[in-house]
Design a protein that fits this description.
Function: Catalyzes the synthesis of 5,6-dihydrouridine (D), a modified base found in the D-loop of most tRNAs, via the reduction of the C5-C6 double bond in target uridines.
CATH superfamily of the largest domain: Aldolase class I
Largest sheet: 9 strands, parallel
CATH architecture of the largest domain: Alpha-Beta Barrel
EC number: 1.3.1.-
Order of helices and strands: EEEHEEHHEHEHHEHEHEHEHHHHHH
Catalytic activity: a 5,6-dihydrouridine in tRNA + NADP(+) = a uridine in tRNA + NADPH + H(+); a 5,6-dihydrouridine in tRNA + NAD(+) = a uridine in tRNA + NADH + H(+)
Distance between the termini: 46 Å
Protein name: tRNA-dihydrouridine synthase
Helix content: 40-55%
Keywords: Flavoprotein, FMN, NADP, Oxidoreductase, RNA-binding, tRNA processing, tRNA-binding
Shape: globular
Number of helices: 15
Radius of gyration: 20 Å
């Protein structure tokens, strides 16, 4: 049975790339798509920023053909702004619109957006309804278990949002109060999946960082697909490794050094193309350590990479890493 969101066919058990602020930009999405992600989302975009045509918000609307299917994720605290932002996002021609009711970060949640709407489900329902009515595209939602341990209300949220027309729900197995600490708990996600009233796909998110865990949780929690966030940073191969394990029951070999260098180079090249040389080089700095995690004595290279501004020098450093560590492997 294929998992479908509207007319989008995502196959038997899709692996989704989570929308991550300052991470899930087009260059990062490009390498994750190559790594086997079935569905991706933009970084979350402020509805107020879109309405005011803020350059940073507008740039986040960029979606490319090779990324499809892709969703634009928006957030906000004002219903009318969210309705207008939905119209603007729809014009960018994504495959769906996703609403963020999960972001725990202070400057989002404390402004009445993101996860804070878990404290006001009536408003969340009204806002979602306004978004659904403002677009012809499927609307999906990402949220958390609840605001804190005393208000785990996502069971009610799932029913009410399905009733007004959302077409899939992703649940991060933590409360707002937990932020990203402690362990994700997917038991409530399974309860929602088992609710006979729920007909839309339910995706689980939080702490899936290996093929074995993905396979175990797929069975244990009965979700329709898994959304992966932090485990894909610097490791876009996680998607193909999970799929390989599902199909064969065997663990795939990790990426070769050449694959790591190539993915890093590709990410850098796309980053420069999309953001221009200065920002492209600067924003790539947070990724180097992740691409080369576990290489012995890598620190001197990392220090050079994060300081270097000359693009040609960065490329030659990557070549040098390739030669040095490949030679060491031989």
């Amino acid at each position: 049975m294929s998992v479908k969101i509207g007319n989008i066919d995502l196959g038997d058990f899709p692996l989704l790339l989570a929308p991550m602020e300052d991470v899930s930009d087009p260059p990062f999405r490009y390498v994750c798509k190559q790594g086997g992600a079935d569905m991706m989302y933009t970084e979350f975009i402020s509805s107020e920023g879109l309405i005011r045509s803020a350059a940073k918000s507008r740039q986040k609307l960029d979606v490319f053909e090779y990324e499809r299917p892709i969703g634009i994720q928006i957030f906000g605290s004002d219903i009318e702004s969210m309705r207008e932002a939905t119209e603007i996002a729809t014009l960018a021609q994504p495959d769906l619109i996703d609403i963020n009711y999960g972001c725990p970060v202070k400057n989002v949640a404390c402004r009445g957006a993101g996860a804070s709407l878990l404290q006001d489900i009536d408003k969340m329902v009204k806002m979602t309804e306004a978004v659904v009515k403002a677009t012809h595209l499927p609307v999906t939602v990402k949220t958390r278990l609840g605001w804190d341990d005393n208000t785990k209300n996502v069971y009610e949220v799932a029913e009410r949002l399905q009733d007004i027309g959302i077409q899939a729900l992703t649940i991060h197995g933590r409360t707002r109060a937990q932020l990203y600490k402690g362990e994700a708990d997917w038991t409530l996600i399974r309860e929602i999946k088992r609710n006979p009233r729920i007909k839309i796909p339910i995706f689980g998110n939080g702490d899936v960082d290996s093929p074995v865990k993905a396979a175990n949780w797929r069975m244990e929690y009965e979700v329709d697909g898994i959304m992966i966030g932090r485990a894909a940073i610097g490791y876009p191969w996680i998607f193909r490794e999970i799929k390989h394990f599902f199909e064969t029951g065997q663990l795939m070999d990790g990426p070769t050094l050449e694959e790591r260098v190539l993915a890093c180079r590709t990410h850098l090249t796309k980053s420069i193309e999309w953001k221009g040389p200065k920002t492209g080089v600067f924003e790539m700095r947070r990724h180097y350590a992740n691409y080369f995690k576990g290489l012995p004595d890598f620190k001197p290279y990392r220090m050079q990479l994060v300081k270097e501004e000359n693009i040609e020098v960065i490329y030659s450093l990557l070549d040098e890493i390739s030669e040095k560590y490949l030679f060491a492997e031989l």
